[in-house]
Amino acid sequence: MIKSELTIIAAASANNVIGFNNKLIWNIPKDLKRFKELTQGHSVIMGRKTFESLPSPLPNRRNIVVTRNKDYSPGGIQVFSSIEDAIDVCKDDLQPFIIGGGEIYSQTINLVDKIELTRVYKDYQGDAFFPDIPMDKFELDSELVNYLDDDSNTKYSFLTYIKK
Length: 164
Ligand SMILES: NC(=O)c1ccc[n+]([C@@H]2O[C@H](COP(=O)([O-])OP(=O)(O)OC[C@H]3O[C@@H](n4cnc5c(N)ncnc54)[C@H](OP(=O)(O)O)[C@@H]3O)[C@@H](O)[C@H]2O)c1
What we know:
Elements: E1 7-13, E2 17-19, H1 29-39, E3 43-47, H2 48-53, E4 62-66, E5 78-80, H3 83-88, E6 97-98, H4 102-108, E7 114-120, E8 128-129, E9 138-147, E10 155-163
Parallel strand pairs: 1-6, 1-7, 3-4, 3-6, 4-5
Antiparallel strand pairs: 2-8, 7-10, 9-10
């Protein structure tokens, strides 16, 4: 049996901020494009707050939402009351993605095989955070450097970490 490669995908600032007031901090078209390309056709597992920050379920993906609310049942998604059950149901997917937010990243960072992290090399103010990557368990596999399309000359990188 082929093992699925459970993957976190996230974008975080230099100080690990990923969101503020249940919204993303930045708009980086190349990052959104990459997110779409990588996750298309796959399962995407997210926390209830991240789901509610989206305009609708993500098209062409199996949307899986975790909540402790047993009565939660919006259309177009599958709901689970534990992260383990959500991951379990994705066993038929070769690459299921954990797409946030902060609470879900911190509870899964030690479970995943791969991390696709967009790191924006600037500090931002926020209220949702990416956990520290346990570098005893992961190694950097590749880095692709870019610059924000504004006048700030801020660097960001697509970083791929794989489990050692
Ligand atoms: N930059 C990025 O890559 C990125 C990606 C995604 C999201 N975000 C941002 O992150 C922020 C949201 O993150 P967040 O940490 O506030 O919330 P979140 O992780 O999206 O969702 C938290 C919710 O998930 C449910 N949950 C958490 N742990 C659970 C468990 N073990 N079992 C069952 N349900 C569980 C709970 O829902 P109930 O309260 O309903 O029980 C909890 O309130 C937003 O600002 C969003 O824009 C950023």
